[in-house]
Design a protein that fits this description.
This protein is α+β, with helices and mostly antiparallel strands. It has 11 helices and 23 strands. The N and C termini lie far apart (57 Å). Bound molecules: zinc ion.
Length: 502
């Protein structure tokens, strides 16, 4: 749309000066805020407040595509919030699992052929040095998969602070998925070493299952510097500012506030489109600019719908990246990975629903954390329910009824082994289909039943998000807030839907 000139035509000399001043001001403003540059939009005061006193991760990363390695230096400033003196700290190093066929989450029966089209490709993790308070300390993996790194430290008193540093090198597998490279697109989801969660007197140490998302983490602040060869773009959980490195590399810098993890993708192949929608910088990466623009349009619709339903999206940006994946998509804080095959002809509706599901995770996983290992329904079923509501809001009751028949009613009719329920932990499930039917489909039925029982749970979901923003809500937290909000004992209904075999 052409711009209109608002300066009157009389007094031309004065106008010229005014015009020059306006141009100078707008150029300066554009430099600071122009959304299509690499400048990040600034977090607002509420997000800054949420980020205060959180642990601080700083990572210096170097990707070498020729050697297929990522060198990682982590510097973590953390506080002991466990209420007890610690003698060790556990970091989750999920990338380790990709070393062996037996432990790789991408090597399951469901995923192997899609993840490793050229046969199994071993990743690797070489730990170089760990230090605590600037002194080298010992560290060892609890598990064969090398995903649980236990660092021995002198007594670390409750309420005190410390600094943990780590150097390691990853060998990157050729693998389609959250982690790995394919066709010069390099995905790094759940690979930065992060603190495990301390609960019930111990560090959590669940295995990296191939089904579901076995990740639980607290919110923290992340500063990331990534060096890549010239010609590579970087999509990430923060807006990344780029500058030439000293050695001919390109360095991307970004900072994310109050997030549970930090994912990133480097690629020489992806086109990028930026747009600001409702104050949020949307950055889309896809094979073509046309696809990226479509992603922007659909992501903006999802963000608008969910912001009005569940509370305003609190982060300054959202990155959406279409990459080769063996499943539909994967959510990260401020970032969605989408399966690029969803751009195929005739997949428009599926792409929109995929983006809606993954975008809903920004509220149910990223803003409100939950136990994704033992209570996967608490984010997945809620996101499916959110997609149904999105469709009803946008396309009406008939579209909602059709989608509900397909994604909720049909799973209720399926034959599922006894003992497998929506409330089961992820390691109970034996296939992706079983997991999605039970946790997504049957789990979403719980929220529809809650709508009927309460006259509508939208106010509850708003309250749930507000109450548990940047925290981890347990199932008990969910139940007790629900019961107190509704003034009813809904625990039997939850038990019926979540814990009862059909
Ligand atoms: Zn999901």
């Amino acid at each position: 749309m052409p711009r209109r000139c608002i300066i009157p035509v009389s007094n031309r000399k004065g106008n010229l000066v005014l015009l020059l001043i306006l141009l100078a001001v707008s150029a300066a403003t554009a430099f600071l805020f122009w959304p299509t540059s690499e400048q990040a939009l600034q977090p607002d005061s509420r997000l800054i407040a949420a980020s205060e006193n959180l642990d601080e991760y700083t990572y210096s990363l170097r990707l070498d595509p020729a050697a297929k390695t990522l060198a990682i230096e982590m510097d973590l400033r953390m506080q002991n919030r466990t209420g007890t003196t610690l003698g060790d700290i556990v970091l989750r190093t999920y990338a380790g699992a990709y070393q062996l066929l037996d432990t790789s989450p991408a090597a399951s029966r469901d995923l192997f052929d899609k993840s490793y089209p050229n046969g199994f490709s071993a990743g690797g993790l070489t730990l170089q040095e760990v230090s605590w308070q600037d002194k080298v300390v010992s560290a060892a993996f609890d598990d064969t998969a090398q995903t649980i790194l236990r660092v021995s430290i002198p007594d670390f008193g409750s309420g005190t602070s410390g600094r943990l540093k780590l150097r390691l090198v990853l060998t990157i597998p050729e693998c389609l998925g959250r982690y790995g490279y394919y066709d010069d697109t390099w995905c790094f989801g759940n690979i930065l070493p992060i603190l495990s969660v301390f609960s019930d007197g111990a560090w959590r140490a669940e295995p990296y299952c191939s089904i579901g998302d076995p990740f639980v983490s607290q919110c923290a602040n992340y500063t990331v510097h990534l060096a890549v060869p010239q010609g590579y773009t970087c999509a990430a959980s923060a807006a990344m500012r780029s500058q030439p490195g000293v050695d001919g590399s390109q360095v991307y810098d970004g900072r994310a506030y109050a997030v549970r993890d930090f994912a990133f993708i480097a690629s020489s192949r992806l086109a990028k489109v930026n747009a600001v929608k409702n104050g949020v910088l949307l950055s889309a990466y896809a094979a073509t600019g046309k696809e990226a623009r479509l992603v922007i349009e659909l992501a903006a619709k999802s963000l608008a719908t969910f912001s009005s339903r569940y509370g305003e999206y609190p982060y300054p940006q959202l990155t959406i990246c279409a990459v080769p994946l063996p499943f539909g998509g994967m959510e990260y804080p401020c970032m969605l990975m989408l399966n690029s095959s969803f751009f195929a002809e005739g997949m428009g509706d599926s792409l929109e629903l995929l983006i809606a599901h993954e975008a809903a995770h920004q509220w149910f996983y990223a803003i409100v954390g939950s136990d994704q290992f033992y209570q996967p329904w608490q984010d997945e079923a809620l996101c499916e329910y959110a997609v149904l509501q999105y469709v009803r809001d946008r396309y009406g009751v008939d579209a909602y009824d059709s989608l509900r028949a397909l994604r909720v009613d049909a799973p209720m009719q399926e034959s599922i082994p006894s003992g497998i329920t929506p409330g089961s932990p992820i390691d109970y499930f034996t296939s992706m289909n079983e997991y999605s039917s039970v946790v997504y489909g049957r789990g979403a039925a719980l929220f529809i039943a809650l709508d009927t029982a309460t006259g509508g749970i939208l106010p509850f979901l708003k309250l749930y998000v507000k109450t548990f923003s940047y925290k981890i809500a347990s199932r008990d937290d969910f139940e007790s807030l629900l019961n107190s909000w509704s003034g009813q004992d809904l625990t039997p209904l939850l038990t019926d839907y979540l814990d009862t075999s059909m």
